[in-house]
Amino acid sequence: MKKELLLIGGGHAHMVTLAQLDTFINKGFGVTVIQPSEYHYYSGMGPGMLGGTYHPDEIRFATRKLVESKGGRFVLGKAKRIDPDKQQVHLEGESAPLSYDVLSCNAGSYVPRSIIAGTGEQVFTAKPIEDLLAARQRILLEAAKATITIAIVGSGPSSIEIAGNIHQLCSQEGIYMPRIQIFAGKQLLAGRPGRAQYLARKLLSRKGVEILEQGYVKQIESGNILLENGEQYQADLLFPSIGVRPSSLFADSDLPIGPDGGLRVNRCLQSVAHGNIFGGGDCIYFEEGPLDKVGVYAVRQNPVLYHNLLAALENRQFEVFQPGGSYLLIYNLGDGEGIFSKWGLTFSGKLAFYLKDIIDRKFIERFQNA
Q: Contact, 109 vs 246, CB < 8 A?
């Protein structure tokens, strides 16, 4: 009976494996990919899609089409629980589990909604990326009628990119420019280079974006924003952007996890408790040293995961993942402007966005054409 490789998610850390799926098939292994959508969106270009720089087709991978064209099996669904003893994955709404010999998890992350009370119909998050499509349509609808207030909660890169691209969207469409507010806690881009903070402030202020740094948001309910210091604000649309958390799949499966809830893996990206379970991207906790939740690490994990999954099926030696040194930061602030930061060099303007656009398009075209 042939061995089965099961992949949860077709995200950034599985790109090389998906592109080389025929290698597994040709060696006689069965391959199944589980994903809640037929497409996987590249998060690095999500804000650009919100702003209208990119069409949805330009920033997504046709996972189902790729898998089936290479002889694999695609299952539209969401993993609910992993049973490592029976080597099975249970899906939401399905009674029959999927079996595996080797499992690899790229289950992604989500934006916590713990501060949101009620249904949150006015609330949009950057993950899943499809949510930004819905946000775009809602903004176009509401801002065509009147000036609205849009609040973005969070101090990180996602917040400034969403703010800048909302400005671009409304500028290009010729509709009422919203009042855009960023609730940045106590400091915008906290932990990032000081010059990056300065340039972000400068660019956003020029676009009319208000940056509030008098305290953290305690609760969001029906358009009301309550700060921990008791101050209250009102907004028509809201974007919580308070970081991401790994999928709860691993905690729900009683697998060893890190402090953030991610699957705890060793230097070979292998579960510390189960040698035939691997993982990459935002959903893991790298035991040797926590990694930032940025796509660059998923991209760097690609070749190691591909090698080790094949090695696990063939009983060969594993490779070790080396996180590497510092990584390039480029933020898309909308209107064709960005902020570049690496090697002690930080600058803003059209060139920064131009470089980001080239890098992003090159990456996505490589795997769209796999």
A: yes
Cis peptide before 290 (omega within 30 of 0): no
C-alpha to C-alpha distance for 263 and 34, rounded to whole angstroms: 17
- Please tell me the predicted confidence (pLDDT) of residue 222: 84
Could you give all domains of the chain from N- to C-terminal order, each with its CATH number? 4-110+244-314 (3.50.50.60), 116-243 (3.50.50.60)
Strand order in the sheet with 338-342: 329-332, 338-342, 345-349
Residues with Cβ < 8 Å from 206, sequence gap 6 or more? none
**How far, in Å, CA of 98 to CA of 76, rounded?**
12
Per residue in 164-197, pLDDT (tens digit) is 999 999 999 999 999 999 999 999 999 888 999 9
Q: Containing H/E element for 217?
A: strand 217-221
**Whole-number Å distance between alpha carbons of 289 and 132:** 32
- The answer to whether the beta carbons of residues 260 and 245 sit under 8 Å apart is yes
Which H or E run includes 208? none
Q: Return contacts of 85-91, CB within 8 angstroms, 24+ apart.
A: 87/276, 89/6, 89/8, 89/34, 91/34
Residues in the chain: 370
Amino acid at 181: Q
**Token representation of residue 39:** 């497409």
User: Cβ contacts of residue 104 below 8 Å, gap of 6+?
Assistant: 5, 6, 7, 8, 14, 17, 277, 278, 279, 280, 305, 309
Q: Cβ(53)–Cβ(168) under 8 Å?
A: yes
